[in-house]
Structure formats: C-alpha cells, structure tokens
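Deviation from plan, reported transparently: oxa(dethia)-CoA complex.
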Amino acid sequence: MPLYARITGTGGHLPARRLTNDEMAALLAQRGLQTSDAWIVERTGIRARHFAADGEMASDLALQASLKALAAAGRQPHEVDLIVLATSTPDMVFPSTATILQRKLHEAALAAGGQGPIGAAALDVQAVCTGFIYALTVADALIRTGGARRALVVGAEVFSRILNFDDRTTCVLFGDGAGAVVLEAVEHDGAGPGVLATDIHADGRHTGILCVPGTVAGGQVLGEPLLRMDGQAVFKLAVGVLEETARAALAKAGKAEADVDWLIPHQANIRIMYSTARKLKLPLERVVVTVDQHGNTSAASIPLALDHAVRAGWIQPGQLLLLEGVGGGFTWGSALVRY
Ligand code: UT7
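Because the crystal trials were delayed, the predicted structure below was used instead.
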C-alpha cells in the first residue's frame, strides 16, 4: 500500500512581547509617522502582533513550537529523522537554522533525561511566506519515497528584525512567531489521513516587489537589509495565484471545493483570505483566521493558524484541510491534507 505523510502533532509559539495597533501607532508617532488602529484593521484585519526580545532568535521560537508539536504527537526528539525549517530570518548566514534547532532540541532532550535528534537530516527552506508550504512539500516527498519516516516541519520567523520602522506601509503588517508539525509515514489505500496533494510554484520575474535587498560581503552589510514591499502589486498577484493553486491541489487529489472543511491560508491580509474563500465558494466560517492576533508571521503563519485551530477543537480527525500561501520570490503554493 502507498505511503502517506500524516500530521500527528502541531505546536505554536509566540514571543512574549505583544504590540496592539495603538501601541504601533504610538511607536510610529515618535518617528513623525501617522497610522491608526482603524486604518490597519480596515485594510488588513490585523489588531496585534508579537515581537521577539533582543537576542531571541528564530531557532528559539522554533524550539518551543517543535517541543509542543512533539508532545502533541507523543514523540521524543530522538525519534525524528528529518527537520525541515522554513525561514527568511535565519539565525546566521550559515549553518542552517534547522541545524541550530537540532542542537537546541538535543540540549532540551538531554536536560529532560532523553536524547536529541542527532543524525537526522536538517535543512532550511527559503520561500518567504510560502516557506511552510514548500517545507511541507519537501518533507512529504521524502516520506512518501521512503527517505524519512518521521519529520519535524517548522516555520519560524523574527521579521521584526528586518522591518523598516520609517515605512508605515510595511512595518505595521508583520510579527514574529513559530509553528511546527510532526509528519509521520503511514500506509493506507488513500482514504486515511495524510498529505493528499501539494502544488508549489515561483515566478522570479517579481523578485523586486517583496524583498530585503541586502547581503554581506567582506565583513560588511551591502545594500539595505530591510523589508520592501509593493503592497498593491503583491495583492493583485496573490488573489489570482491563490485561487489557481487551490484548484490545482484539489484537482491532483480528485477533490471538489465543497469537500474542503477548513481553509488555512497564509495570514497576511483578511481581505485576500476572504477573497480566496469566496472564489472557492467556501463559507467564511470555514476560514481559520489568526492574522488579527498574530499579524503576518511569514513562514510561521500557516502552522501557527493550523495549531490554533487544532487546539481550539475546530479541526477534527478525518477533516479535509486546504493550506495555501504566497510570498516573496514571487512564490505560491498549497497543500491538501486529510487530518
Ligand atoms: O506575506 C506576503 C504577502 N503580502 C501581502 O499579502 C500584502 C499584500 N498587500 C496588502 O495587504 C495591501 O496592499 C496593504 C495592506 C499593504 C496596503 O493596503 P492598500 O489597500 O493596498 O493601501 P494602499 O497601499 O493603496 O494605501 C492607501 C493609503 C495611501 O494613502 P493615499 O495615497 O491614498 O493618500 C497610503 O499612503 O493608505 C496610506 N497608508 C497608510 N495610512 C495609515 C499606507 N500605510 C498606512 C498606514 N497607516 N500604516
């Protein structure tokens, strides 16, 4: 019987510091910029976001989310043989944040009298806000072809580090956080739980509409390592490709729009999320929304939303989940998952 990659546990973590829109407005006012809770809520649906403390890295947030996902799956860190971590805000240029997470999982396991996932393969995936969909696709492919049995798939970001607080059109949109899932190989005839289909794409002609145009060379930062976005260009591309990729994933799995129990979109803007739901004729109550409390956490947003919906008891075993995202690159993709 064919192998499937089943989600057996989810976890999420947000840093302690929470900023409401009013607090963001006060922060921007100190720089002579004007914004308001009303503008941010009306244009995006965002009401608050979390920012990491000084020195708190993507791997720290990833560790907390991963430990929760492992606990939910009833697994120990040493049982994982693959770590795929999506981030655009890595701890270092190299090694990968996935290997740093591996070390931190090992240290946490040792402190608890166990062992870490030393020896597991560990890699980062860079697809900005589509990162989790890409990471899930990589892990699913390895599991279905026998290259891994049990994977930790993580999205972790500290976007607060790359925000330009002199640009009110972008800095109010993003937040920090991490989400994780444990994926395990299961055998069945296709009617059981697991990732049923994935669909990923990129169009490198649009690298400039959402980017951090900086790099390091000769011990110096070259260019400007702060986020730039042409919001309207991203918006227009996003609404088109999200519908396309959702339909593509459904077609690959032989499912119809009406079969979807929950839409779990990348949490960037409530208007984009609801627009996709309407195009797919899904009732808005079936859209998992966390953007109001998290802001846009890039690669972390989908697993954070998934974890929220699982822990709230909304998602039930056997239900069909449609995960989808868009982001810098330009990248986009979706995954259809039987929970
Ligand atoms: O995660 C990757 C995916 N990213 C996204 O999905 C983002 C996609 N884009 C968007 O979500 C929206 O384009 C934004 C939320 C970024 C902006 O919303 P919009 O409805 O496209 O607004 P806009 O850019 O057309 O700006 C409208 C007005 C402008 O003023 P004028 O020119 O009409 O006088 C802006 O200067 O709002 C002004 N504005 C603000 N006002 C108060 C822009 N930012 C702010 C702000 N506070 N923070």
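The first helix runs from residue 21 to 29. We consider this an acceptable substitute for the interim report.
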